[in-house]
Amino acid sequence: MEPCSKRTRGRGGGSSGVDRLSALPDDLLHAILSSLKARQVVQTSVLSRRWRSLWRSVPCLDVDQDDFRVNPEPLTSQNQKDLGKFEDFVNSLLLRRDGSVLHTFRLCVCESFAGHMHAGRWIRRALACSRRALHVHCDAFDDVVHMPLDLGPSLTRLHLSNLSLDARFAESVSSVCVVLEDLELIGCGLCFDNITSTSLRNLCIETGTPDYDRPAPRLTSLRLLIQDQFFQVSVNEMPSLVKASISYWSPDEEAAIQETQRKLVSNVGNVTTVELTDFLQMMVPDMEPVEFPAFRNLRNLVLVGCDLRDDFQLLRHFLQKSPNLEELTIRCCWLPEGFAGDQGTTKLKKLKYIEIIYKYHQGIRELVCFLLEISDRVPKNTITLTKV
Known about the structure:
Layout: H1 4-11, H2 26-34, H3 38-43, E1 60-64, H4 77-95, E2 104-109, H5 117-127, E3 133-142, E4 157-166, H6 167-175, E5 182-186, E6 189-191, E7 202-206, E8 221-227, E9 243-249, H7 254-266, E10 273-277, E11 300-304, H8 313-320, E12 327-331, E13 353-358, H9 364-374, E14 382-387
Parallel strand pairs: 1-2, 2-3, 3-4, 4-5, 4-6, 5-7, 7-8, 8-9, 9-10, 10-11, 11-12, 12-13, 13-14
Helix pairs in contact: 4-5
Organism: Urochloa decumbens
Pfam family, one: LRR_At1g61320_AtMIF1
Domain F-box: 18-54
């Protein structure tokens, strides 16, 4: 029979209890710790003797300066102390790694971070650990944090927010990041003419952007949210593109915006899903007729905030070129009044579902009549109307 004292220790907690956490396999422990912020990872070292140095080999580090801020105001003595603690923590976190591969490094620095020059050093240190994914975010636009020139050949995912990126960054993506598949640039200042990659599969740019005018043979997903008059946009040679989401607006003259929007649409002919946001009328006086490519693979079309007051010319052109369209969503678009009826012979035999989401009743009746005329599956086709 087991001695009473041992049974008591087995049931007890704290330092006298059984250390069940240490019995977990390393892969599971690493997965658990990788889901936490870096400061929490280090703090968990008190839970178990085995965990005391486990933080040194965690494959994913999520470093967030917000975890060290007590006062959100930027210029306080307390914030200066918090900044010092944050710098010391990140320095120790990266320098004391045990040589294990760092798969993912996330760094978030605040607007009040006076020592942004340290961020570049931390990024270089993380890149030296044979990483696969790098995420760098600044709360507000920052031209002090500089990306390293050598991003390394093993990087597969790169997400950057509110950074200033120059031609050297574009060159590194093109020539060094030979296996990069996922590139996301949010609110970044892009100081280069173009960027190219033969390995990219997912590209997301939400900012003013330069020409993306080189081949991207493997790109399957494209998201562009452009609100800048200083950059022209073009996307060419993307034969593998499956999904495209495009929003483009600038303070330029309306004709220039329309021309750019038409070019963007003309370069996504292979997609199965396309979402267009804030697109202007495609047919206006004194403008050449729009020639869209054939969207033979298109199954799902989403229009958000688009101007359809040209008697649905934009919509009609898409429908005429999309014989296999199955789902159509029209969300909060500008609609015409007094539409006389469809003037063409477009019939969508495969259209199964139409969703109309609107704020105002103006033009809804005309839109429904137009859609009923072009749909060849009534009453099998389902039309849903939702007021928001």
